[in-house]
Every structure is written in structure tokens, then in C-alpha cells.
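Hey Z.,

So I finally got round to the zinc ion thing we talked about over coffee. Here's the setup:
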Amino acid sequence: MNKLIFFFFLLLVISSCADNFPAFDADSAFAHLEKQCELGARNPGSAGIELCRDYIVNELTKCNAEIELQKFTVVLNEEEIDGVNILASFYPQMSRRILLAAHYDTRPWADKEEDTTLHNTPILGANDAASGVAVLLELAEIISTQQPQQFGIDMVFFDLEDMGEYGDNETWCLGSSYFADNYTKPKPEKAIVIDMIGDADLSINMEHFSYHNSPNLVKEVWDIADQLGVNEFKPIITNRIYDDHYPLIAAGINAIDIIDFEYPFWHTLGDTPDKCSPQSLGIVGQTMVNLIYQEK
Ligand SMILES: [Zn+2]
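And the result:
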């Protein structure tokens, strides 16, 4: 090999090492989505949510996470409701932190069904809840087997996101509000909520509050997706979506929401695994991997 060819060979090796991010297993993530749905509806008070909590804790235990159950009670419509946020920490000795979050409760009411007699039936929530949890659980496995160079990772699985009344922000995101109100640790450098990212027809716009409060983090995530050759992250700013990132922003945390809100089965009985795809989970999952494992 002459010197010039060797030089280019060396360059190739170095550049491929720099790009050597762990691979996100989309099929394995999708299995996490399906398993949650097999537990049935996971609305507060259901048998399904108890089983789902056990499932999440069990998976995180396998990944050697430090786990804390944050129990709380809220009053909604003059009724006391108990909730449990599941907190997991990886590499707690590392000072730079990324917080990743998703809600795991599903909506008790299919109140976007055209047939009003179905409005009191709980939804299965394949996309609206299970998809975000599925990506986080798959990430947990990657993080546990390969320590990121720059960041320790915290995860929160929020309870009681989806019992709200349309138009009344105070009634949504109760688990994340409790978490944010009681947050005493040093703030993470970056916090990312993922919600409804399993839609087989994935299209993720820049959510208004995220863009206006944490423009650099939005840009960073969208740039990473762009570098991956992913075109499902659109450079379009959408309306305000009051989701679990909002209480984090209000608490002064650099937080964004990754959400595909254009989902025809939102809050209907049609929110089932066949409307979701492994590819969609993979797109969001790999983008998160590359954010976590970057070397800056
Ligand atoms: Zn919802």
C-alpha cells in the first residue's frame, strides 16, 4: 500500500469510528410496544396499569438501573387519584445528565370516537403511551450495556398524563407536574419527552413551546435526524401542545417534546399496534442514541 492510499485508509477508519454509534433495535422496541398492549388498557385504576408498571420496573431492573417509585396523590374533579412516576438512573456518578421521559398511562376514555356510546371505553394506547415507553425501554438496554462517554442518563415514566379535559391545561400532565414541582437534583443539560412517536405514517413537527423555550435543543435533535438521513423530522413549527415537557420547562429545565400529533386514531379505540411500526420507533430511537453517544 503506498503512503497516500494508507493515509486515506486511515482517514476512513477514523471517520467510521467516530460514527460508530450503537444500533437501536427497532423490532425489539416494537415488541415492548406489543407487550404493553397485551396487558390491556392501562388507564389509572386499571389492572393493566399495575401490570405495566411491573413490566417497566422489571425491564429497568434487568438493565441495572437505579429505580425509584415516586408516589403521589392528586385531586381531579374532587376525586383523589393515586399516581406513580417511575424514575430510573444510569451512571449516577456522571455530572452531565440527559433526562428522557414518556408517559405510560393510557386515556380512560375513547372520547374522540364518532360513536358517543364508546366515549367511556378506555383506549389501548399503542401509540399514545406505549410507543414512547417502548423506545425508552430499548434505550435502557443499550445504555446499560455501553456507557455513554459524556452523559449519565435519567429516565422518567410519567403517570397521569392523559386524564385531562380538552381546553383545561391544569387537568393534564399531572405526573410530570408533580415530578417538576418536586425536582431537587441539579438540572439536566437536556430533557426530551417522547410521545406518540409510533405512528406508521410518522411526521414530527417542531412543537411550539419546545421551539420557543429550547431552540438549540430542537435544532440539535433535528440536525441529528438530518445527518441520519431521516426526513420524518420536519422543519415546521406547530401549534402549542401542552404535554409532559411543559411542566419541565416551567421548572426551568431545557426541555422539548418529540410528538407526532397528526394521528387519526388519537383517543379512539383504533389506537392499536397495527397503526404503528417498528420503523417509526427506530427513527426516533436511533436519533436519541446518536444524541446520547455523541462526543461533545
Ligand atoms: Zn393522549
